[in-house]
Amino acid sequence: MDWGTLQGVLGGVNKYSTSIGKIWLTVLFIFRIMILVVAAERVWGDEQNDFVCNTLQPGCRNVCYDHFFPISHIRLWALQLIFVSTPALLVAMHVAYKRHERKRRFRNGEKIDLEELKNEKIHIRGPLWWTYASSIFFRIVFEAVFMYVFYYMYDGYQMPRLVKCSDWPCPNVVDCFVSRPTEKTTFTIFMLAVSGICMVLNLAELCYLVIKACMKDPRKTT
Amino acid sequence: MNWAGLYTVLSGVNRHSTAIGRIWLSVIFIFRIMVLVVAAESVWGDEKSAFTCNTQQPGCNSVCYDHFFPISHIRLWALQLILVTTPALLVAMHVAYQQHQEKKLLVLTGHADAKHMEEVKKHKMRISGSLWWTYVCSVVFRLLFEAVFMYIFYMLYPGYQMMRLVKCEAYPCPNTVDCFISRPTEKTIFTVFMLVTSSICIVLNMAELVYLVVRACARRSHHSSNPSSGKSSFYGHKHSSEYKQNEINQLLTEQDGSLKDMLRRNSGLQEKGDRCSAC
């Protein structure tokens, strides 16, 4: 089970999304997951091995690394991407449930065209609208939470070149050097920017849904 | 065979599961297996190479690592996930057996055309009769395995927290030696995450068990209070066991002795019919 399988699972959800939702999914897969896998993982690959401290004291390096990097950027991004893409499965489950209900009504004798049932385009209205809107809301919440967690854990989005560490067993204040800080800062800002774009797309999609729902109501009443 | 292969095998089971069962399967694959593969494995990747002891004594490093980590978290989680997902295969096997029996019945009643055979393969099995018991057993085993592994984790790594420092005095370490574990905070975060998802899965399994029991009781009370309507709906359902039993009885009286022998040899159908008449 890896990113490829997740893509397979979420690709099916694409069918029931709005156009903005489809753009969002493409941005997620190409500019975030793919960048994470082909580029970012290599940059952070040697993060602990090449974290060098100016001491020979055994254990000082481990302790200092753990103090300054409680959870690696790569893992945080992986968790963020998993959490952000999962609300789409709520929509998939709801659509599957709707289809199942229609099939049941068909079996109980109601006249429904089988062909229409198979190729039917699911319209986002009624309870499905609420499920879809909730999934977008959760996506926005998860994006925001993770952006805040990043900011809080790493005091901004910049990777320092040098950190000063005085945890036991380090004898005094020891200089420790982070490997590839500029490249890491570049990728952090890139992922942050794409995360921001995804949030904007989600907000736009939410507005679009709300406006579409409001526009439909006056038509119903007239 | 890797996690993707397991995913393919278990996706087939998904069709015959309850709604809660499908949610459980999604949680297992997305929040446990996927997190294990894309994140946790790289956290524990350098656990031995970055395990540093404050000594130059050869062998002390290896001995201390082995003393404090008899089996790595990653391997334990892999075993847990395999054992927890495998009971679902009991259900898959039972469904395959039922489908095989239905196909045989179609052949005997002369409806063995491609369309009917395809329908047997595609239609969703009702979780009733012996399949209900198989399904319930698989859920019970899942719960058992989850609980056992959570207990094993607790026994091996008390408190679910990864320490930064361990003190080791196993031979050949000269005295009590300080050993430092790599990335303890990140490991603690992932241990807690996997623990939480494991608990969510336990809750989902219990909910599924309760749902199955309540549904079975409701069905039984509905049938005992309305026996006639119950039977008519049963006969209306093409693949009900009473319907099958009737078909078999018809065949036994109409066909010749060789056919009777064939049916008696495949006594599974008859036994099932007897059992279900007691439901």
UniProtKB/TrEMBL annotation, chain A:
Membrane topology designation: Multi-pass membrane protein
PANTHER family noted in UniProt: CONNEXIN (PTHR11984), GAP JUNCTION BETA-2 PROTEIN (PTHR11984:SF46)
Domain Connexin N-terminal intervals: 42-75
Cell compartments where the protein resides: Cell junction, Gap junction; Cell membrane
Classification lineage: Eukaryota, Metazoa, Chordata, Craniata, Vertebrata
SMART domains assigned to the protein according to its UniProt record, in alphabetical order: CNX (SM00037), Connexin_CCC (SM01089)
Record GO biological process: cell-cell signaling; gap junction-mediated intercellular transport; sensory perception of sound
GO cellular component, one term: connexin complex
Protein name, per record: Gap junction protein
Quaternary structure, from the entry: A connexon is composed of a hexamer of connexins.
Sample GO molecular function, one term: gap junction channel activity
Family the entry assigns: Belongs to the connexin family.
Species: Pitta sordida (Hooded pitta)
Transmembrane stretches, start-end: 23-40, 77-97, 128-154, 187-211
Residues covered by the Connexin cysteine-rich domain: 142-209
Chief location category: other
Pfam families: Connexin (PF00029)
Keyword Transmembrane helix: yes
Protein's job: One gap junction consists of a cluster of closely packed pairs of transmembrane channels, the connexons, through which materials of low MW diffuse from one cell to a neighboring cell.
Superkingdom of origin organism: Eukaryota
Keywords of the record: Cell junction, Cell membrane, Gap junction, Hearing, Membrane, Transmembrane, Transmembrane helix
Family matches, as InterPro entries: Connexin, Connexin_CCC, Connexin_CS, Connexin_N, Connexin_N_sf
Automatic annotation (TrEMBL), chain B:
Name of the protein described by the UniProt record: Gap junction protein
InterPro entries, alphabetized: Connexin, Connexin32, Connexin_CCC, Connexin_CS, Connexin_N, Connexin_N_sf
Gene assigned in the entry: Gjb1
Keyword Membrane on entry: yes
Every Connexin N-terminal domain range: 42-75
Organism: Pitta sordida (Hooded pitta)
GO cellular component: connexin complex
Positions of the Connexin cysteine-rich domain: 145-212
Pfam families on file: Connexin
